[in-house]
């Protein structure tokens, strides 16, 4: 079954990283209200991960969806990190992966493990936190993070022999509907497609296919994925928030050159009366390889903004001007190309 078929036409999903207290401590009531708003607005695809707040996002999502019919929504989570009962002290957390982004998440220690046994344990733990009996899609998470350095190839090899095979078996047995990599680097996707031995159903690519950063994905990932009939779910369409009024890019304070590019895009958008959120979402979905886009949200009102942005009518001249001013790659598919 393809990723698009599994998602059953839900082109707009909800990425739950913010529910793990991403960048700030979110009150429990606000987190629950945000998921409720997503459901009310018709969102039926929810993506999460153990890493988001050391299990916090999964716990909150599980609580919010507990009374919903399981057949009514699509659920994906990730493997590659095991959340331990052991609690890290504050000094250890300040030096680890959770520093900054999920500093306000649960204090539980996280262990990287892409082996087959860890994959099965991670799924079992996620099912408990999510209060459900099954997952639809499973992504192998963050296998090439910057903080891994050259070690990422070692993690990849462990995953190739472990998580890849375990998830393939679960899919073939009908336990899950599909699997792939969930990454914010294109290199592991390229390597997986080049190997040819694994048969992932698709990929979740975060931050590497957006208005601000899409050239390498266009050159290397999208064509290869199309050749193998694998589809892409795009995460981070707002580039960590900078395209939605925030100050972050790549999970850090946006540098001057990125801020300048955003201002140029905003200028074109203002000239045509277009919201930058609408431009960001509709740009992503114009690529035929993209099955769904999953912006994150931590406030209920943000969900309504996303739904409105998807439905907004954008004049063709806006896209022509973006291309003419070289704010998007010349070969990037745009909504006007489908007309």
UniProtKB/TrEMBL annotation:
The keyword NAD does not apply. PANTHER family: GH17980P-RELATED (PTHR42686). This is Pyridoxal 4-dehydrogenase. Its EC number is 1.1.1.107. Keywords: Oxidoreductase. GO terms for molecular function: pyridoxal 4-dehydrogenase activity. Residues 12-323 form the NADP-dependent oxidoreductase domain.
